[in-house]
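# nightly structure sweep
# worker-07 picked up a monomer target from the shared queue
# config: single-sequence mode, recycle default, output format = structure tokens
# input follows
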Amino acid sequence: MRTMTTLEQLSKSVRHLAETVAHSFESMSLVDLNYKPAPNSWSMLQCLEHLNRYSRYYNPALANAIAQHTGEQAHLGSISYSWLGKKSVEMVRPQNTKKHKTVKHMNPNNSQLNRATVGEFLQHQQELLQLIYDARKVDLNKKAVPVEFFKLLKLRIGEALEFVVLHQERHVQQALRVKQQLAQQAAA
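# output follows
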């Protein structure tokens, strides 16, 4: 896929995620936002907190990678994927229904969360939109973004951006399913 098309699609996805979260969760009660369908499943806020934890790492890592490579020749061809990038993107793709265990410090289970979690998620989306915009000036195939759980491994800037957005789509969909389960329980 051409770089600009990919970045435009990622921007569109991030704007859609922000609108979905604002529309779906901002007006809900704190009790409902913390509803868990089962003891070991996540609430809507826990899904968003999981994404916030990833954004706290990946937004600055992406900003650093983009800043380091701004001014170099921007690559306007296709984004190419490393084996790690392909595996990472496929693992978090929303269509992949296989459950994956998250690393302990990224697991929000048993966290005490409030409305600030939604606001933080929306703030991260604004930061991510700016990062995607800034990424137009760099070679997205530069291996420059350390993987959160093993920093010796690096993702390419383009594949890291795609990983972050797809990961967010996956867990926002999960939060929406929890909301639907809450509605079904209330209707029963």
